Amino acid sequence: MKTKFQWRLTSASSTLSEAAETKTARLAALYPVLAKLPAALLRRIGDAAQTLSLPAGATVFDERQPCRGFPFVLDGAIRVAKLSAGGRELPLYRVVAGESCIITSSCLLGHADYNARGVTEGPTTLALLPRELFDEMLGEPAFRDFVFALFSERMAELMQLVEEVAFRKLDQRLASLLLGKGRVVHATHQQLADELGSVREMVSRLLKGFAEQGLVKLGREQVEVLDPSGLRKVASVT
User: What is the superkingdom listed in this entry's lineage (predicted)?
Assistant: First the structure.
């Protein structure tokens, strides 16, 4: 069962404490762009950043929820997905340490609510900056370039996802997904369906067909790839 995300406020002081210095150093190591900011602003970031420790499966943000700040991922990963009215998920992208979430950035820039869901893939630690500080940081060219460079990278990924969903059949996409996970894929049919934005029944039917063709061997919560060249042919059929 997913744990609802709750903000944990941390105390701030007018001067940089030892804990704040450690936090700032860790942030700067993962996000080198912060070292390009004015020293006074960097000290304020160390003071104001709220450290959040979340378990696996925690909902970091959800659709129609207001955005409360700009997150830096220190450890772990966040899986961002779009949900349909029927409860199906279409994975959009992952955010790991050193990266940030463009949906959060767009919500802050547009003063809008979230239009997707973010869930931790494992134990995850975030440093959350308040909206007001994010707005001030955007006034610095280095940080502004960092944010919009992420927009550019993510948009390219999302356009590729749109192309995959719109122009490739599900069997092609499933074959490509299996080929990209090694010889033995440790995942349930539901997890594979979630990654493809499909439903378990359709993925199970396709996997059964792959197995009958000798392309894969199905086991408990795993799929063993027996014929990679055969799967590549399925993936490349136009």
Answer: Bacteria
